[in-house]
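Q: How would the structure tokens look for this protein?
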Amino acid sequence: MPEAPTRWLLTFPGTPGAHGEQDTVVVEVQAGIGPHGQPVYADAGGTVRVEIADSGVVHLLACEGRPEPDTPVHAQPLP
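A: Here is the predicted structure in token form.
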């Protein structure tokens, strides 16, 4: 089984139908496992904390300073 990426680029969608800019943030693996059994990732300031499943599904654990999105957050692994 391949090892999980240590960094991800998360893209938070803009308001549906508004064609606004999307918000992005880089998260890195932290110590611990989230409630869904996957590694926990956080941004440098710790304001965004997520759990990313093997399938790429993002589970938001904390999202300070950003509205909780109505549509899924996209996760792209980084080298």
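The two ends are 18 Å apart (CA to CA).

Strands lie at 7-12, 23-33, 39-42, 48-52, 58-63, 74-78.

Upvote if useful.
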